[in-house]
Amino acid sequence: MSSQLARCGGPIFSLASSPMSQTPASIEAQIGELLKEAMRNKDARTADCIRMIKTKHMERRTAAGFKGPLDDSLWLDVIAAYQKQLRKSREEYVAVGERGADALPQLDFEIAFCARFLPKAASDDEVRAAVRETLTRLGVSDAKAAGRVMGEVMKANKGKFEPSSVKRIVDEELAPKG
Questions:
Q1: Phi, psi values for residue 148, rounded to 5°
Q2: CATH of the domain at 165
Q3: Using one digit for the tens of pLDDT, what is the confidence trace for 88-139?
Q4: CA angle at residue 83 from 80 to 85, to 5 degrees?
Q5: Integer angstrom CA distances of residue 138 from 76, 131, 150, 162
Q6: What is the C-alpha separation between 11 and 59, in angstroms, rounded?
Q7: Judgement on whether residues 35 and 104 belong to the same structural domain of the protein
Q8: Is residue 37 predicted with pLDDT exceeding 80?
């Protein structure tokens, strides 16, 4: 019977996907459950945020030229990009002052919601260690090479470091001592 289901594209269940298994749920499954819970609780704020994340994911995977697995790393990438967009929007709303104040609570909520799926940001000490290691490896001491150093650090630590922290620490490390 399972071969018939496999041929017609139906689901094949195994013990690994049973509710009794101890493996953590995929991000997609977590988001689906959170959406159901939000809808049951009539929590429009959470439901809207989840729907937006799901829309961003769908846009990414259906984009022309998309290649790659549909796995948790894609979800993390989409959520991180959405959170970055929210942070930028928040800065713009803060800049307009009183007129933008009404949107801030929703933006703060969505930023925090996204953060629950993303790895915790590294401490300044971890970033500084990576920056120093990269400076030593590249043999760089000139501030003109800050962009190159930052690119190397970000590439080697994809998703772990905040770009603003890396930039600040690279600038500090390359600043003339005196």
A1: -65, -45
A2: 1.10.10.410
A3: 999 999 999 898 899 999 999 999 999 999 888 778 898 899 999 998 998 8
A4: 110
A5: 30, 10, 12, 21
A6: 25
A7: yes
A8: yes
